[in-house]
Amino acid sequence: MRQATITRNTKETQITASLTLDDRADGVVVHTGIGFFDHMLTAFAVHAGLSLHLECKGDLEVDCHHTIEDTGIVLGQTIAAALGGRGGIMRYGSFFVPMDEALASAHVDISGRPFLSFRASFTAPMIGAMDTQMIEEFFRAVAAHSGMTLHLEVLYGENDHHKAEALFKAFGHALAVAVTRNRDGATLSTKGVL
């Protein structure tokens, strides 16, 4: 079973994440102290079809920045550790998610080459206690620390909650496709390695 647990402690955040790619039996339990962020991480994990337990204690008296970015770092590291050598997976995944008036897409390449293309804008500075500019920073940290190329886009939408949630759900579905085991266990690369 592909699973991993990562703990990261700094002067700003203390985070532990446990992730299982192949089984959702352990469910999803997320506590970061930021309600909307917990909602987004839960939506991601449920739509990715994985188990995720994540606890974060961050310096929220400062603001939400360290908690959200560091959670992205740990989630990226946990995904990378659970995948191991990355061989035998579909590697690529793409998905579109409509959420009421909003439409978002996510495209993943688990290539070992971290890159983020983020095309989304938000009208409000905050959704609940989550700074909307931190959505991009979270995904940048996930991409960098998981070693994936990640393209995210909100094609259109009006409601910031809907736009953000469509992004997180699309990412979950795209990741689920990319980590699916392929038929013959081959590494999908002309180089022979990822």
Automatic annotation (TrEMBL):
Q: Record's GO cellular component, any one?
A: cytoplasm
GO biological process terms, alphabetically, are: L-histidine biosynthetic process
User: Signal peptide: which range, if any?
Assistant: none
The record's listing under CDD domains reads:
IGPD
Q: Which reaction does it catalyse?
A: D-erythro-1-(imidazol-4-yl)glycerol 3-phosphate = 3-(imidazol-4-yl)-2-oxopropyl phosphate + H2O
Looking up SUPFAM superfamilies in the UniProt record yields: Ribosomal protein S5 domain 2-like
Q: What class of enzyme is it?
A: lyase
The entry's family comment says: Belongs to the imidazoleglycerol-phosphate dehydratase family.
Q: Please state what the protein is called.
A: Imidazoleglycerol-phosphate dehydratase
Name of the encoding gene: hisB
